[in-house]
Design brief:
This protein is of the alpha/beta class. It has 18 helices and 10 strands. Bound molecules: flavin mononucleotide (FMN).
Length: 415
């Protein structure tokens, strides 16, 4: 080859965009975003995101459960325009994907919950604000309109619980998710060992951290104080008084089905139970007027050795029939996982850690990048599976999956 022809093959284009934009553009997988987040965040904060309870068996099992499935695609189907849009409880989402509730998001990036909500709204996806958020539900409602849901922890103080429900209704939240996996806090050993606190305290080791992650600490120290924004204000203010050590002591471990009936009566909108809800409990919930379940083991952060939510989808769907909403999270890391979830019978899949990594990696743009990544992976998976739409994927589901990779677990209802 002549030198001039060889030179034609070399591209000398200068990289476009800021360093942050270029770093994001190099993230082609959720794991790439996680690695970028790990470069930006102190080790203790990264462990707070990544960690699970006890031996982290639930945590490991969650991703494994999705990865065990194999596809058997339909061939010679017209997939020239795969459509990822779907209806969920009366509202259209751009894809069967949402962002699950996470506490203390502004600690990961001071742009926090509003940045996640804006990215979700721009992508046409639902976002669930946590009771433990660092932005109040009223402040979040002032962000551009999107499909906003609220996740509720039931408090020992019933008046506080009812007040949160009233505020969520007044602020226009569409769906309420009642967490039913948090009677007591899970034992997250990484946080126990690192001495992690909420809010983070400047200790000898965090001072060392300032040297290694100056960007993180500069942003955090310049930002307004971190607080549990939904719990502040009023006579019983506890926004500043709670830490990770004592907050769980305020959750109501006595909440039972009679308590659920009271909360159902107080909430005018759609209601989901969020937790590792088995088929018998899902049927019971439906009988109590609940609209659906959000199958979740809190991303492996609560009860260790919990069945992977992926493995609950088919038995729950079989038990409740089609006319009941089924959301799933815990372990979704690729658009193909979303396709598996839907083929098994879920209506919507959600992610927790992936959007926190994206937020740490690139703020609001990072979360937008993650949404694009997951939706485009899902769209490509649909096309390669030979399905043109979400309803078709749900219908053809069982034929698109090769066998059942493990025995179907059945959780009995509580006595
Ligand atoms: C850092 C962190 C904080 C969380 N905080 C909450 C919370 O406040 N309320 C809640 O219902 N779930 C919470 N979750 C659980 C998520 O809603 C979701 O169930 C879980 O992250 C899904 O698993 P994944 O991280 O594997 O996607 C949290 C998860 C993480 C990683």
């Amino acid at each position: 080859m002549k030198l001039s022809s060889a030179l034609d093959l070399v591209s000398f284009t200068l990289p476009a965009g800021s360093a942050a934009e270029r770093a994001l553009a190099r993230c082609h997988t959720v794991e790439d975003l996680r690695r970028l987040a790990a470069r930006r965040l102190p080790r203790t904060v990264m462990d707070y995101i990544d960690g699970g309870a006890d031996a982290e068996l639930s945590l490991a099992g969650n991703t494994e459960a999705f990865a065990r499935y194999r596809f058997t695609p339909a061939v010679l189907a017209d997939v020239s325009a795969p459509d990822t849009a779907t209806d969920f409880l009366g509202r259209t989402a751009a894809a069967p994907l949402g962002f699950a509730p996470t506490g203390f998001t502004r600690m990961i990036n001071p742009d926090g919950e509003p940045a996640v909500a804006r990215s979700a709204a721009a992508a046409g996806l639902p976002y669930v604000l946590s009771t433990m958020a660092t932005t109040s539900l009223e402040d979040l409602a002032a962000q551009p309109a999107g499909d906003r849901w609220f996740q509720l922890y039931a408090w020992k103080d019933r008046a506080r619980t009812l007040d949160l429900i009233r505020r969520a209704a007044d602020a226009g939240y569409r769906v309420l998710e009642l967490a039913v996996d948090t009677a007591v806090p899970g034992n997250r050993l990484r946080d126990v060992r690192s001495g992690f606190t909420i809010p983070p305290r400047l200790t000898a080791s965090s001072l060392l951290d300032i040297g290694s992650k100056p960007g993180y600490w500069t942003k955090l120290l310049r930002a307004p104080d971190l607080e549990f924004a939904n719990l502040s204000g009023g006579a019983a203010d506890c926004g500043h008084g709670y830490t990770i050590e004592n907050i769980g002591a305020q959750f109501n471990p006595a909440l039972d089905w009679a308590g659920l009936a009271g909360l159902r009566a107080a909430w005018p909108g759609k209601l989901l139970l969020k937790g590792p809800v088995g088929p018998a409990d899902a049927v019971r919930a439906r009988d109590f007027g609940v609209d659906g379940v959000h199958l979740s083991n809190h991303g492996g952060r609560q009860l260790d050795r919990t069945v992977a939510p992926a493995d609950l989808i088919a038995p729950v769907r079989q038990a409740v029939g089609e006319d009941f909403a089924v959301v799933v999270d815990s372990g979704i890391r690729h658009g193909a996982d979303i396709a598996v979830a839907l083929a098994l019978g879920a209506d919507l899949a959600m992610v927790g850690r992936p959007y926190l990594w994206a937020l740490a990696a690139g703020g609001e743009a990072g979360v937008g990048h993650l949404a694009d990544l997951l939706v485009s992976q899902f769209r490509r998976t649909m096309a390669l599976l030979g399905v043109a739409g979400v309803a078709g994927l749900r219908r053809a589901g069982p034929q698109l999956l090769a066998g059942t990779p493990n025995p179907v677990p059945v959780l009995e209802g509580t006595p």
